[in-house]
Design brief:
The complex is a heterodimer of chains A (about 220) and B (about 500). With about 220 residues, chain A is an alpha/beta fold. Chain A has a single domain, classed as Rossmann fold, CATH 3.40.50. Chain A has seven helices and twelve strands. The termini of chain A are far apart. Chain B has three domains: about 130 residues, no CATH class; about 260 residues, NagB/RpiA/CoA transferase-like (Rossmann fold); about 50 residues, no CATH class. Chain B contains 24 helices and twelve strands. In chain B, strand 7 and strand 8 form a beta hairpin. Chain B is globular and about 95 Å long. Classes of the chains: A alpha/beta (about 220), B alpha/beta (about 500). At the A-B interface, helix 1, helix 2, helix 6, helix 7 and strand 9 of A face helix 3, helix 4, helix 5, strand 3 and helix 9 of B. Strand 9 of chain A pairs antiparallel with strand 11 of chain B. Bound molecules: iron/sulfur cluster. The site of iron/sulfur cluster has 15 residues of chain B, from helix 15 and helix 17.
Chain lengths: ~220, ~500
């Protein structure tokens, strides 16, 4: 419909509305700063208020913490991206576990029904977190496919405390999403939810019913 | 003339049912024909809604909750104002550069592998969507929430072409089961209570047992819809913000059905109004903060989903094709007027509805429009014609609650006043749809009489003398006055006019 395109653009151009662009005063976004410890505190508070659960870990023991959780919860299958460094460590740590690791290493079409019906949990890394409102930042892609954090009823996410940003605004700038955005990028604050029936909050409507964050305390001097 | 073909133009052909011939007043003012089923009438529907105690209770409860939750998210009035100023500036800047940004968006999307299509009308947009689906042999479509697709009546269109188009947002799913339209732009099923939904689910979902438990009802919908996501050939979604510089489509949601619709099926088609574009990705941050807080009183939604391309070569999932349909449907005409252009700043948060004394009492369906509430009272008449939707531009007390909470400071009352004027006396060079077609004969006669009296001092004094002496005898049921006295006491003129009193007693010294 290139006719439509030309006609629309011509109409918009002929309107002659112009004039100076109003200034963008971003001071209200810029003045939001917290210390590293406060950032962790805020993120935890914000996400816990929408039913996100937290596991505490240190850089050296998070795979063990994760394994213990999976076994405690009786998870049968854990889907993960095998090509990441975290994936490698997971493989090592889960050897001999009753929770079977299932690598997401083939096109979704080859196991779509299985993905929807018989995967208990999905594990992903994150590229950071947002302190102000509480949220995880994800860049799904070849190594950690898009549906890994969406379709399984439980989403386990690895979050090093050193990667927290103050605000979404500062995170977008720091991660360079405004210059070269990945095909998909996400901010996630909790498990899927709805209030469409009488404004009553219900969790686990389409996406994960539970979101569990493995908080890796990798800042110097922070206790685990 | 450009822009006149892209929408229902209002004016006599739009306003009158084909069977009723308009009465033509000697001065060229046409009397409105009696209401017919095809004639939307806010007054009649609102009156019905006011008598529905259940409906009023459902809305009252929901709106009170939403107002309180929004207020709690903006504890600092200074910060709120600063954020609103920023959001307004972001939207105003985008509009000032609109044609340029749309072209940039198209180029950036193309670079990312997203195909862009342009539609002047809803019919064109529907045809584009159908063409894309047919090309892939798609017969099962799952939909994320999209007001633009409501504007297009896309579901009905696709069903008529043998394609299943299933709403997957829980609220939209609920109303689709009952063949209803949304009564709120954020919470489409807000007019229903859980008893009504429980009954509906038990009757319409296979193997469902009756339950009023919200978690169980949600689980029921989850089960049905996950199967649909799995089987769908295509996913359809709206767009909250489209970023020109990066070619990114931003979707804001809580349920995850938007992510399901856009990432599970092999084909994703997004539809958006042409005003949705912003320049840079970081511009989205303040708008997102305003949107979630204003809409539902949440600091953030569960998901902010930024889509900048289809499945890459080495990716395991995601749609193989992503298309973006950009719809005009009258927006470029609204754009042409510097004052009315502010209408296009709207980020569809619904706060104006939640705070409107009219909306909270009558609910969304009474507006008989895709966009209800204050934003609907300015947007719908500009799309359908101010004459045809004369009922809506008067469906407001001009109290200003809407513009006070609007995160992008749209002066809704000012625009309403402008549209009221244009409906009867078009401004020179006006581009308002259906301008000058909103006057009724009664109104016209009343104003003529008023002007005649005011222009003649002796006649004026005589009328004032009669009005004050016989003030108790004015029949409340007389035409014009009746609309007022139906639910209010008859206004009583003062015992003596001001002129008379001054003539007798002189001016008091102040
Ligand atoms: S007019 Fe303002 S308050 Fe109403 S929906 Fe649009 S942005 Fe929200």
């Amino acid at each position: 419909m290139s006719d439509a395109r030309a006609a629309i653009l011509a109409r918009l151009r002929s309107s002659g509305s112009g004039g100076p662009l109003p200034d963008l005063d971003t001071a209200v976004l810029e003045r939001r700063h917290w210390s590293a410890a406060e950032r962790v505190q805020r993120l935890r508070q914000g996400m816990a208020s929408v039913h996100t659960e937290f596991l505490e870990a240190r850089p050296e023991d998070w795979p063990a913490v994760l394994r213990a959780f999976c076994e405690r919860e009786g998870l049968r299958t854990l889907l993960f991206g095998p090509a990441t460094e975290a994936g490698h460590r997971l493989v090592e740590a889960m050897a001999g576990s009753p929770t079977a690791l299932r690598p997401y290493d083939a096109p979704v079409e080859t196991f779509k029904t299985e993905l929807f019906q018989s995967v208990d949990a999905g594990f992903t890394t994150t590229v950071g977190g947002v302190a102000e409102t509480g949220g995880l930042l994800l860049e799904p892609g070849p190594r950690e496919p898009r549906l890994l954090s969406l379709v399984p009823p439980l989403h386990l996410a690895l979050l090093p405390t050193s990667t927290l940003h103050d605000t979404l605004w500062s995170a977008i700038r720091a991660l360079g999403w405004g210059q070269a955005p990945p095909p998909n990028a996400l901010m996630i604050s909790g498990p899927s939810k709805t209030a469409d029936i009488e404004q009553t909050l219900a969790y686990g409507v389409h996406g994960p019913k539970r979101l569990v964050v493995i908080l890796v305390h990798d800042l110097p001097g922070t206790p685990a | 003339m450009h822009g006149e073909t892209d929408m229902n133009e209002g004016g006599p052909s739009g306003r009158f049912a084909p069977s009723a011939s308009p009465l033509v007043h000697p001065h060229g003012v046409t009397e409105r024909s009696p209401a017919t089923p095809s004639d939307p009438s806010f007054r009649a529907s609102a009156t019905r809604a006011l008598g529905d105690a259940q409906l009023r209770a459902n809305f009252r409860r929901a709106m009170d909750g939403l107002m309180a939750k929004r207020a709690a998210q903006f504890p600092d009035p200074g910060d709120l104002q600063a954020l609103r100023d920023l959001g307004t500036a972001v939207r105003a800047r985008s509009l000032l550069r609109l044609p340029e940004l749309l072209e940039q968006l198209e180029a950036s999307c193309a670079r990312n592998g997203i195909r862009v299509h342009w539609a002047e009308t809803c019919d064109q947009a529907n045809a584009i969507v159908l063409g894309l689906l047919k090309a892939k042999g798609a017969t099962r479509v799952v939909k994320g929430k999209s007001m633009v697709s409501e504007e297009m009546h896309l579901n009905a269109f696709l069903e008529a072409h043998g394609i299943e188009s299933l709403e997957s947002d829980l609220g939209e799913y609920i109303i689709q089961l009952d063949h209803e339209t949304p009564s709120h732009i954020i919470m489409p099923a807000i007019h229903k209570n859980k008893g009504q939904i429980a009954r509906q689910f038990s009757q319409k979902i296979k193997d469902a047992t009756y339950t009023e438990d919200v978690d169980e009802l949600t689980a029921l919908a989850r089960k049905v819809l996950r199967q649909k996501f799995l089987e769908a050939d295509a996913g359809l979604s709206g767009v909250n913000f489209a970023v020109a510089e990066t070619g990114t489509l931003c979707l804001v949601e809580n349920e995850g059905n938007g992510r399901m619709s856009t990432h599970v099926p092999p084909l994703h088609i997004a539809v958006m109004g042409l005003e949705k574009v912003v320049a840079r990705l970081e511009d989205v941050a303040p708008l997102y903060a305003l949107l979630t807080r204003s809409a539902t009183g949440q600091p953030a939604t569960t998901y902010l989903n930024l889509i900048s391309g289809p499945r890459a070569k080495d990716e395991m999932d995601g749609p193989r094709e992503v298309h973006l349909v950009i719809l005009d449907n009258g927006r470029s005409r609204i754009y042409g007027d510097p004052q009315l252009q502010a209408t296009l700043r709207c980020i569809r948060c619904g706060a104006c509805m939640n705070h409107c004394p009219v909306y909270t009492r009558v609910g969304g369906h009474a507006y008989e429009a895709v966009y209800p509430g204050p934003i609907g009272t300015i947007l719908t008449p500009q799309m359908e014609g101010v004459g045809r939707r004369h009922d809506l531009i008067h469906g407001s007390s001009l109290c200003g609650a809407c513009s006070e909470v609007c995160p992008v400071e749209i002066p809704i009352p000012d625009i309403l006043v402008r549209l009221r004027r244009e409906a009867t006396h078009a401004d020179a060079g006006s581009k308002v749809a259906g301008k000058g077609t909103g006057q009724t004969m009664t109104e016209d006669l009343a104003w003529r009489a008023w002007a005649a009296v005011l222009k003649r001092p002796r006649l004026y004094r005589l009328s004032a003398w009669f009005a004050t002496r016989f003030r108790g005898l004015i029949p409340g049921g007389m035409p014009l006055l009746k609309a007022w006295t139906m639910s209010r006491t008859t206004p009583l003129p003062a015992p003596r006019s001001l002129q008379e009193r001054i003539r007798k007693g002189g001016l008091p010294h102040v």
